[in-house]
Amino acid sequence: MSVSGVLRRYFALLLDSLILAGLYFGLIMALDILGIGISLDVIIERSINISQGRFNINSDLFNGYYYFWFLMLFLIYEIGFVASGLSATPGKLILGIEVVSDSKSSIVKVILRALVKLPAVVVPPISIIYIVIALVSGKRQSLHDKVAKTYVVYKKTSKNYSNKINTQELFEEMKRRGLRTYSEQLALAEELYGTSRKKSKKSGSYGWIGLVLLIVAFIFLGIFYTKVYSKIQIEVQRQYIENMIWRQQLK
């Protein structure tokens, strides 16, 4: 089995985080246009307050509204892409890796994997724990992989298995998983060693999907931070005028 390195997985997580952040702000802006929830101006104001150290734990920045939409977006993103025929999130697609199952895959496994992975996405420092678990694991499985019995491997479309099959390894793995039918054995061979030459010509890496989403995310992030910058400039000018008026009154 061509298991992906931890560093590649980490960079895939960073790419996914960037894409999620961009899509999240795009979603917030769309909700603002529709008049749903807290306005974008309020979000920008809270972001400015955070950057200047002016916030408290009771601020509505920390209420369930923000987390609800982010959690919903993450779960749709993670479950939708991994459960699809792509078997990978956009960040993984860009770097040529995918998620495979230790046994027969199911939507339940994908959902379980996403839920266990959630803390590492919501609280970035926790991701360090997941990385350490993957580093000490024999097959580079992080916590969510161990729970769901999945692996992250190099995209099997990038190679073929002609003359590369280790028959002893294949037989032992078939015996361990209890595989009997030809289709199950063929699927295992493709998981461990890649697709056949004939199949690999028909399939693509789909990395362009991840790149398109990354560009869209950067556009949304650019729009949001442009608005933040404009708001900061207005705030700075307002404070400057207030200071000038205050000085004039002192005179």
From TrEMBL:
Its main location: membrane. Keywords: Cell membrane, Membrane, Transmembrane, Transmembrane helix. InterPro entries: Pra-immunoreactive, RDD. One of its GO terms (cellular component) is plasma membrane. The chain crosses the membrane at residues 20-44, 65-90, 110-136, 206-225. It comes from the Bacteria. It is found in: Cell membrane. It is a multi-pass membrane protein. The keyword Disulfide bond does not apply. Residues 4-149 form the RDD domain. This is RDD domain-containing protein. It comes from Acetivibrio straminisolvens JCM 21531. The lineage of its organism: Bacteria, Bacillati, Bacillota, Clostridia, Eubacteriales.
